[in-house]
């Protein structure tokens, strides 16, 4: 197979010169202190279409002949590759068809359409979209721009590592999200060529561990959904998998709640919005922090295209885990003024009542009793206990309907 090498990646960087953003590469003091390592982030979420996919897409499209451009292209993507291809195809005046999984986040679908591409929603996963894409390519005589299993795509993605190591030549570890393997393949080739001692680590969600399983010779078994839909790939590339086997030191697995927490931390501490796949590297750094103690670790924030409802849910769930948002049930006598009295007690502690519901019928309490269900914004665990103690001392029986888990809250 025609595997890329350092020379072709450097040529890709020359091709891209001035046409995509050389994204910032920054040290995070707060997250470094949190994990006990030197954390360096590469902000590919700041590309125009919100991900590293700009690189490979443009390198591939510029390699097409005039005849191929006139025929048009087709790409299959869970969102980021779609936007990158559609954007660059519009710039180069190439007709584009994009096949996307049905459950691709709305923001990615609409942004792809905004670039003028014909968007077809098909299947539950990227693998389903690839099957249809190949069929349409034959029927319509379109040129396939594969999301990861293409030498030009891999070379373009490898330019990320060139930029990182130019700024941080003494990097000891490079952490890369893995779906089909295009990003990690290109970066492993570039990084290992420049520094054979660097450790290249892939990161996958435990729900879609296809590459991890494949390199171990295990059957590939994946789930149906993940917050990291950008790396939800069931079939590793024929071109990328051998590169990963040869150059990648290990593929780490992270869970959904760990990715959620990484998204939240990047938003809160680094003031940057990252999608689930983009936060996978930080999730792994936190989960396996002991093995990275004292080391200099580069993490590629591969994309930032996250739906606002998903981001909102992550923030809400984080507040629940840290006891900042709680649901509290209080038993009262069903008489005038009881609701006002309990509300006054809660408010007197400085807590904010977000919602309150009054239950008479749907309860097993005795007649002339009622249950109040409060959703309360607090300052944390200590403040929550203060509220409960105050209600207890006033003669009210209260109970947390959902006891929050606080162990995953890192700050």
Major sheet: 6 strands, mixed
Helix proportion:
40-55%
Tell how many strands the DSSP assignment holds.
14
Report the principal-axis shape. elongated
Provide the domain count.
3
Strand order of the largest sheet: 1-2-10-7-8-9
Number of helical elements: 16
Structural class: alpha/beta
CATH topology of the largest domain: Rossmann fold
Write the SSE topology:
Blueprint: H1 6-16, E1 25-27, H2 29-35, E2 38-43, H3 53-62, H4 66-71, E3 73-76, H5 80-91, E4 96-100, H6 106-114, E5 118-121, H7 126-140, E6 143-145, H8 151-167, E7 173-177, H9 182-194, E8 199-205, H10 210-215, H11 240-247, E9 250-254, H12 256-269, H13 280-287, E10 296-301, H14 308-321, E11 325-333, H15 338-348, E12 352-359, E13 369-377, H16 381-393, E14 397-400
Parallel strand pairs: 2-10, 3-4, 3-6, 4-5, 7-8, 7-10, 8-9
Antiparallel strand pairs: 1-2, 11-13, 11-14, 12-13
């Amino acid at each position: 197979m025609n595997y890329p090498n350092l020379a072709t990646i450097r040529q890709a960087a020359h091709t891209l010169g001035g046409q995509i953003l050389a994204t910032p590469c920054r040290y995070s003091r707060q997250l470094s202190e949190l994990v006990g390592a030197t954390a360096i982030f590469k902000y590919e979420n700041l590309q125009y279409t919100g991900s590293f996919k700009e690189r490979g897409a443009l390198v591939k499209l510029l390699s097409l002949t005039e005849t191929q451009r006139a025929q048009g292209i087709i790409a299959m993507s869970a969102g980021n590759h779609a936007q990158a291809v559609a954007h660059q195809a519009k710039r180069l005046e190439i007709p584009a068809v994009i096949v996307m999984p049905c459950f691709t986040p709305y923001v990615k679908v609409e942004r792809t359409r905004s670039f003028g591409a014909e968007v077809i929603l098909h299947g539950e996963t990227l693998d389903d979209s690839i099957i249809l894409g190949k069929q349409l390519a034959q029927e319509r005589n379109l040129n396939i721009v594969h999301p990861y299993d293409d030498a030009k795509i891999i070379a373009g993605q490898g330019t990320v590592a060139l930029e990182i190591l130019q700024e941080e030549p003494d990097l000891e570890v490079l952490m890369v999200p893995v779906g089909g393997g295009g990003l990690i393949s290109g970066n492993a080739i570039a990084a290992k060529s420049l520094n054979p001692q660097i450790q290249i680590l892939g990161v996958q969600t435990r729900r879609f561990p296809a590459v991890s399983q494949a390199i171990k010779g295990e059957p590939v078994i994946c789930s149906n959904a993940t917050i990291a839909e950008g790396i939800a790939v069931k079939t590793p590339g024929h071109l990328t998998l051998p590169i990963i086997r040869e150059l990648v030191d290990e593929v780490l697995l992270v869970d959904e709640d760990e990715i959620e927490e990484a998204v939240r931390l990047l938003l809160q501490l680094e003031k940057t919005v990252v999608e689930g796949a983009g936060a996978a590297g930080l999730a792994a750094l936190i989960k396996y922090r002991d093995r990275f103690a004292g080391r200099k670790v580069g993490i590629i924030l591969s994309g930032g295209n996250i739906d606002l409802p998903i981001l909102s849910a992550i923030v809400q769930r984080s507040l629940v885990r840290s006891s900042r948002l709680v649901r509290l049930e209080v038993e009262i006598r069903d008489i005038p003024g009881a609701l006002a009295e309990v509300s006054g007690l809660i408010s007197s502690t400085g807590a904010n009542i977000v919602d309150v519901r009054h239950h008479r019928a749907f309860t097993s309490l005795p007649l002339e009793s009622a249950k109040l269900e409060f959703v309360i914004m607090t300052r944390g665990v200590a403040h929550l206990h203060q509220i409960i103690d105050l209600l207890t001392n006033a003669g009210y029986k209260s109970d947390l309907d959902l006891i929050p888990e606080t162990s995953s809250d890192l700050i």
